Amino acid sequence: MSYGTQTGGREGLSGPEGHNPVASSSRMAPPAVHPDGADDEVTSAQERGSYMGHAREFYERNFGLFLVFSAQTFGSVMNTAAKLLTAKDSPNQFHALHIIFVRMLATAILGTLYMWYKNVPNFPMGPRNMFGLLVMRGTSGFVGLFGLYYSLSYLEISDATAISFLVPTWTGFLCYVWLHEPYRIQEAVSGLISLVGVLLIARPAFLFGNPTVSVPDLDNSTVTMFIVDGSLEKPPVVGSPSSPQRTLAVICSILGTFAAATAYSTIRIIGKRVHSLISVNYFAGLSTIASGLIILVHPDLEFILPKGSLQWSLLLIIGISGFLLQFLLTEGLQREKGGRATNMTYFQMVLALIIERVIWGTTPPVLSLVGSVLIISAAIWLSLQKGKPNEAKERAAPVDEETSLLGARGRQSDA
Fold first, then answer.
1. Quick check: 135 pLDDT over 80?
2. Candidate from 84-88, 158-162, 252-256, 380-384 with smallest mean pLDDT
3. Where is this chain compositionally biased, Gly residues type (predicted)?
4. Which DSSP category does 88 fall into?
5. Which of 12, 186, 279, 384 is the most buried (most CB within 10 A)?
6. Measured in whole angstroms, how far is the alpha carbon of residue 263 from the centre of its chain?
């Protein structure tokens, strides 16, 4: 007799026909009696385990989306702080170049320390054969950032945010001209719709005339007030819709979106040959150097110190929020699919409207809202367009607040 052999397809059984008396007796034994409530405790533990499993699955599935949402929140906070500092009636008005210098200096320092700590390959200058493209990426990114911050001096946050969604349209055109990528009819239609939206936001005098500007009654409106060194500071007043400053701000904002699209097209050429943080650091470093030099040589500009705790706090918020925007957006888009992440960036428009209402107590005019809806709808429609099924798979690209808007173009040309 041997044990552990197979008899009739059964293991470890002895006796004729594989009969096992121990197994038979165990089957004949009465079921075990559990204490009262033991079954309920087991069921409850299983339910808790199931809930925890679903919660963990939900967390893992949407963590990247949460990072992108957090990045957009920090971006809105940063834009709000920048608008408060560049307001005409602030105790010490900052220029857009001052904001860029402070924000990008903080980003460059924190980014350099992070890459040094993580021992990023080719730190800090990147591959030598990529130097020219990295400089072009940083320079065009600086111009795009200047267009955004200058427009915040005269435009509502919601208007400036809406115009920034022109970037996907510009990128499609640049990739067609520069990289010979396909430029489909959907992209051209999206561009025309966005152009109409920009005109509704800008409301130039040669199209809409000079409307009568009504001054809001601050005595009967609920607005947030700020105390600076014991004095009462009212919310900044934005120029009238037809003012030359507003028109110039819209032009600078449009040129800024074109420069941001140029930066993204350069990033597409660089591809994965350079670490994403090195690309971001070129952007931050060149923006810091360029803004600092312009402040030094411009006769009407000089380096100024903040006045009061509020301005110091706003500068600190800009520096920290700018770095967190870059970092969280990069981490989020590395974990999340391009379509879901890109659509989450449109939430910044909602945040801009909420911030305007809470801090300034204002609501954009109907034409501005219609123009914003047109621009965002065109961008969303463009992001939902699918590329050809036989093209190569999507590839990841370095991202920042300019390129976060470009998932639509990236999926069409990379997908």
1. yes
2. 380-384
3. 1-12
4. T
5. 279
6. 16
Q: Does residue 255 lie within any of the structural domains?
A: yes
Torsion of CA 315, 120, 144, 411, to 10 degrees: -130
If we measure between CA atoms, which residue out of 247, 157, 372 comes closest to residue 255?
247
Please give the backbone phi and psi of residue 12, each rounded to the nearest 5 degrees, phi first.
Answer: 65, 25
Task: For residue 51, count other CB atoms closer than 10 A to its CB.
Answer: 10
Query: In whole angstroms, what is the distance from residue 84 CA to residue 82 CA?
Result: 5
Query: What is the phi-psi region of residue 298: left when phi exceeds 0, alpha when psi lies from -120 to 50, beta otherwise?
Result: beta
Give the residue from 400, 376, 153 showing the smallest Cα distance to 282.
Answer: 400
How close are the terminal C-alpha atoms of the chain, in Å? Answer: 66
The answer to whether residue 104 is domain-embedded is yes
CA 86: distance to chain centroid? Answer: 22
Two structure tokens written together for 235: 């919310």
d(CA 281, CA 362): 37
Over range 148-164, report the average pLDDT: 84
pLDDT in tens, 9-60: 444 444 444 455 444 444 455 555 555 555 556 566 666 667 777 777 777 7
Q: Is the pLDDT of residue 330 over 80?
A: no
Q: Are the CB atoms for 134 and 126 separated by under 8 Å?
A: yes
**What is the DSSP track for 260-300?**
HHHHHHHHHHHGGGS-HHHHHHHHHHHHHHHHHHHHHH-TT
Q: Cα(85)–Cα(93) distance, rounded to whole angstroms?
A: 6
Tell me if 366 sits within 8 A of 94, measured CB to CB: no
β-strand 231-233 against 6-7: which pairing, if any?
Answer: unpaired
H helix intervals, 20-95: 21-28, 38-85
Rounded Cα–Cα distance for residues 355 and 33 (Å): 63
Task: List 6's β-bridge partners, or say none.
Answer: 11
CA-CA-CA-CA dihedral for 284, 285, 288, 294, to nearest 10: -120
Torsion angles phi and psi, residue 120, rounded to 5: -65, 135
Q: What percent of the chain has pLDDT over 70?
A: 66
Residue 79 counted as domain residue = no
Residues spanned by the domain of 251: 92-209+226-414
CA distances from 390 to 64, 181, 381 (A): 27, 15, 22
Question: pLDDT-based confidence at 237, cuts 50/70/90?
Answer: very low
The reply to whether 20 falls in a domain is no
pLDDT at 336: 63
